Amino acid sequence: MDRIFSPWRMEYIRRAGGRGGTAACVFCVPDGDFEDPERLLVGLYPGTVAILNRYPYNNGHVLIAPRRHVANLWDLSSEELRELFSLVSIGSRALALEYRTEGMNVGMNLGKAAGAGILDHLHVHLVPRWAGDTNFMTPVQETRVLPESLLESRRRLSAVFGPLVP
Question: Contact 12/3 with Cβ under 8 angstroms?
Fold first, then answer.
């Protein structure tokens, strides 16, 4: 099997690779960190955060999470649930407008058995899709080809997420 080295992932593994605690959680964002482009934030709201997936399936792959560090949907307040799923709707629209998507995968992996990569901070995946967006590289080479950098995706989406918030 061929190996492609991605040393930038080690920071993620050390900080947030599914271990407990909020100190290293990628979704726990202090108020002053929004301007740091390396955080890949595209939207910061009173109870919710929208952040680009650092290891996306497609360009524009956004994660929507409550700002409060919580693992289960039933632990969210009614207001947190409303804001979370309102932002899922807004984010879907933002991606459709900015990337001209033909479809969207929306999903959550809650718990290790369900495939959650970060176990103790729930989040919703928004994955933009287009007809024919898969190619031989993923199944044959186990490699994804992304035509746009994460910082360019952040620039595009942070401009769109803000104006769409009611």
Answer: no
Q: Report pLDDT digits (tens) over 79-97.
A: 999 999 999 999 999 999 9
Tell me whether residue 123 is one of the annotated catalytic residues: yes
* Contacting residues for 117 by C-beta, under 8 A, at least 6 apart: 17, 18, 109
Considering the candidates 61, 121, 123, 125, report the single residue annotated as catalytic: 123
What are the Cα distances from residue 68, in Å, to 26, 84, 94, 108?
12, 11, 23, 17
**pLDDT per residue over 108-158, tens digit each?**
998 888 888 888 999 999 999 888 776 544 544 455 666 788 888 888 888
Q: What is the residue whose two structure tokens read 């933009």? A: 128
Tokens (6 digits) for 69: 């560090």
What whole-number distance in Å separates Cα of residue 115 and Cα of residue 125?
13
**What domains sit in the chain, N to C, each tagged with a CATH number?**
9-164 (3.30.428.10)
